[in-house]
Automatic annotation (TrEMBL):
<protein>
    <submittedName>
        <fullName>LacI family DNA-binding transcriptional regulator</fullName>
    </submittedName>
</protein>
<dbReference type="InterPro" id="IPR025997">
    <property type="entry name" value="SBP_2_dom"/>
</dbReference>
<dbReference type="InterPro" id="IPR046335">
    <property type="entry name" value="LacI/GalR-like_sensor"/>
</dbReference>
<dbReference type="Pfam" id="PF13377">
    <property type="entry name" value="Peripla_BP_3"/>
</dbReference>
<feature type="domain" description="HTH lacI-type">
    <location>
        <begin position="5"/>
        <end position="59"/>
    </location>
</feature>
<dbReference type="GO" id="GO:0000976">
    <property type="term" value="F:transcription cis-regulatory region binding"/>
</dbReference>
<dbReference type="InterPro" id="IPR028082">
    <property type="entry name" value="Peripla_BP_I"/>
</dbReference>
<keyword id="KW-0804">Transcription</keyword>
<dbReference type="InterPro" id="IPR010982">
    <property type="entry name" value="Lambda_DNA-bd_dom_sf"/>
</dbReference>
<keyword id="KW-0805">Transcription regulation</keyword>
<dbReference type="GO" id="GO:0003700">
    <property type="term" value="F:DNA-binding transcription factor activity"/>
</dbReference>
<dbReference type="InterPro" id="IPR001387">
    <property type="entry name" value="Cro/C1-type_HTH"/>
</dbReference>
<feature type="domain" description="HTH cro/C1-type">
    <location>
        <begin position="2"/>
        <end position="49"/>
    </location>
</feature>
<keyword id="KW-0238">DNA-binding</keyword>
<keyword id="KW-0678">Repressor</keyword>
<dbReference type="Pfam" id="PF00356">
    <property type="entry name" value="LacI"/>
</dbReference>
<dbReference type="Pfam" id="PF13407">
    <property type="entry name" value="Peripla_BP_4"/>
</dbReference>
Length: 662
């Protein structure tokens, strides 16, 4: 009969102590990854794994056989998830697991703890305390029953706790909103006092301080989440009316849910009117429209560590370290937007802020107004969508389009076309300059007879009062989106990157390229930008890419300013057999979508040309009757990755993806 393998045999074979093997099996102390792997392999090879599994199936009974989690409620997702993970890890240790609920009430909690102290079966307690005052837990502390505080803490010496990095988390979320240009940020926090609440408040105020904003609690509102959904929503409504924020930092899961309900009920568009960063331990945060930018906590990691610390106290009477902190990750989705600034520093208005009344619509239809369009280039589906958006909007008001010109990126040709348009004396012109410098004089002349609305870009040194408005995608956000996608793709590894940027001086592309470079340099230190090369003419992007990769073959990720030069860069990479290099760019089209499907394009942020066209036409219509038109209107860009390419295609092109691409 074969001899049964014992834990001592495992220790001898691994050349370690029995205690070390025990710590690997029970995960009660840190052991180096290499040693863990060695011991686990021996356990599997000798069949000792079956003995461990059998032990896990036999729960302890009798005295000191129960582990109890004392929690505020089971309504909050975080506590429901905790219970599941705690049960899993307690059962592995062979103990029975129970929960007790305090309803966040100090008297109810005292009764619960009194019962557990008297119960001879209580081996240990994992506690989410209602109070942070040690005197409130004198009986528990003096009872000698091993306990660990979880998620919240009791202030005092010798009290062990496992917590989230709440201060860093709220700092991270608030800092992100401030980086997006928001200055008036409302922080919604739970009214119940706790160390968690205090840490989150410190994180919020610290972020304001680091951005030079007055650090006080004027933009903090307390929400009593125990008072019911209706009352919470009412409190949030009052706070929003009082502070009129452009962004809100939600301080918990349920607050996030009530906030989104409030915004939906009041018809507030997110993120067009208000950006939101919430807590997202719940699965619905990714399924909302828009998907929420969230702070996501490692609940399983925290639960596992709490159980390990408790059993270390049960087995040894003490723990190695008093406190442990679990990370909170900021996951950026689509509930936040960057506040953009126009060429003269003016804050971007949203398309929704420009309202044409019923009476104004009647006047427009009776006005016999005429509009011309001057494109820098029309040979793309992008320009077609711009034009379609313009036509669909102007058609509502009976405004005629008298001409559409294509300059083929030739400034001299556009100047000649603009002169022809000027002689026609249209009431308004919608234009994209072919060159910032070469066309400015002709646009100045045109402005004397027609109202000018620019798409994407304003000619260099064009006086502010000589044109009506510039309608652009938020190019800074466009660049930040691409930079963040690059950063997340490269997370956890050192990567060398290349940047192929627009060498010509265009406000939009310059802002986009600089924003992408800035976000990588400041927030993703693991990415080394090895080379930055510019192209003037689009065709030059092909050779620029070849030269860059020849000189820097170690580059693994590449930023290219927009889709057309990106396609030329991909052509160069294919010829060099370097399809291992990941491409990130802006603007979605058919060929880029194909390369995203095949895997070389990993992510992009795109303009929404149809919406830009409609917005430009809407601005024109308003300007024909009123001077009350914003100088700069920003249309939010759209983030695209391969997983939701089909939906993105429909949202951008307003039609289903071609069958051959599905």
């Amino acid at each position: 009969m074969a001899k049964k393998v014992t834990i001592k045999d495992i220790a001898d074979m691994a050349g370690v102590s029995i205690a070390t093997v025990s710590h690997v099996i029970n995960r009660t102390r840190y052991v180096s990854p290499d040693l863990v792997e060695k011991i686990e392999n021996i356990i599997i090879e000798t069949g000792y794994q079956k003995k461990i599994e059998e032990k896990e199936r036999r729960l302890k009974v009798g005295r000191q056989s129960e582990i109890v989690a004392v929690i505020p409620n089971v309504e909050s997702t975080i506590y429901r998830d905790m219970v599941g993970y705690l049960k899993k890890y307690v059962s592995i240790q062979g103990y029975q697991f129970y929960i007790a609920i305090t309803d966040n009430d100090i008297k109810e909690e005292a009764q619960v703890l009194e019962g557990l102290i008297q119960n001879k079966k209580t081996a240990g307690i994992i506690h989410v305390p209602v109070s942070d005052v040690a005197a409130d837990y004198k009986k528990l502390i003096e009872s000698g029953i091993p306990f660990v505080c979880m998620e919240r803490n009791i202030l005092g010496d010798g009290i062990d706790s496992v917590e989230f990095r709440d201060r860093e988390a709220i700092f991270k979320g608030t800092d992100y909103l401030l980086e997006c240009g928001h200055k008036n940020i409302l922080f919604l926090r739970e009214s119940l006092k706790s160390t968690t609440r205090d840490e989150r408040t410190r994180g919020f105020l610290l972020a304001l301080e680091e951005h030079g904003i007055n650090t006080n609690d004027a933009n903090i509102s307390d929400i009593n989440i125990e008072s019911g959904a209706d009352n919470c929503i009412l409190e949030i409504q009052k706070a929003m009316r009082r502070y009129m924020p452009t962004a809100i930092m939600a301080g918990g899961n349920r607050i996030t849910l009530y906030l989104m309900k409030t915004m939906r009920d009041r018809g507030i568009e997110c993120p067009e009117e208000i950006s939101v960063v919430g807590f997202g331990d719940e699965g619905w945060s990714e399924l909302t429209y828009p998907p929420l930018t969230i702070l996501k906590r490692d609940v399983e990691g925290l639960s596992r560590r709490a159980v390990n610390m408790l059993f270390e106290k049960i087995n040894t009477g003490h723990v190695i370290e008093q406190d442990y902190y679990a990370d909170v990750e900021l996951i950026i989705r689509k509930s936040t937007r960057m506040l953009d600034n126009g060429p003269f520093g003016e804050e971007a208005a949203t398309p929704e802020s420009i309202v044409i009344t019923k009476e104004e619509k009647s006047r427009l239809r009776a006005g016999n107004f005429r509009v011309a369009i001057s494109f820098h280039y029309t040979g793309t589906s992008w320009a077609e969508l711009h034009e379609k958006g313009i036509r669909d909007e102007l058609e509502q008001y009976g405004i005629d389009i008298i001409s559409v010109t294509d300059a083929h990126f030739d400034a001299s040709l556009q100047n000649a076309q603009l002169e022809g348009i000027r002689l026609q004396k249209p009431d308004a012109v919608i234009a994209i300059p072919a060159d910032d410098k070469e066309t400015k004089e002709q646009f100045r002349e045109l402005a004397k007879v027609s109202k000018l609305v620019f798409l994407s870009n304003v000619p260099e040194n064009m006086e502010k009062n000589s044109y009506v408005c510039c309608v652009s995608v938020n190019e800074i956000e466009n660049g930040v989106n691409v930079g963040r996608m690059m950063g997340e793709y490269c997370k956890g590894k050192h990567v060398e990157a290349g940047f192929i940027i627009h060498g010509a001086v265009f406000y939009g592309t310059r802002a986009r390229d600089e924003a992408a470079e800035k976000i990588i340099s400041e927030q993703y230190k693991n990415i080394d930008i090895k080379a930055i090369r510019g192209f003037g003419e689009i065709e030059n992007a092909y050779q620029v890419c070849k030269d860059m990769i020849t000189e820097n073959p170690q580059i693994k990720v590449l930023y290219v300013s927009w889709d057309r030069p990106a396609l030329l860069a991909i052509k160069a990479l294919k010829e060099m057999h370097r399809e291992d290099i990941a491409i990130f760019t802006t603007d979605l089209d058919y060929k880029i979508a194909q390369f995203m499907e095949s895997g070389i394009v990993k992510g992009l942020s795109t303009q929404r040309p149809y919406e830009q066209g409609r917005t430009a036409a809407h601005v024109v219509a308003k300007s024909l009757l009123s001077n009350d038109v914003p100088k700069y209107v920003g249309v939010q860009p759209y983030v695209v990755d391969a997983k939701q390419l089909g939906r993105a295609w429909k949202d951008i092109f307003h039609e289903g993806m071609p069958e051959e691409m599905k």
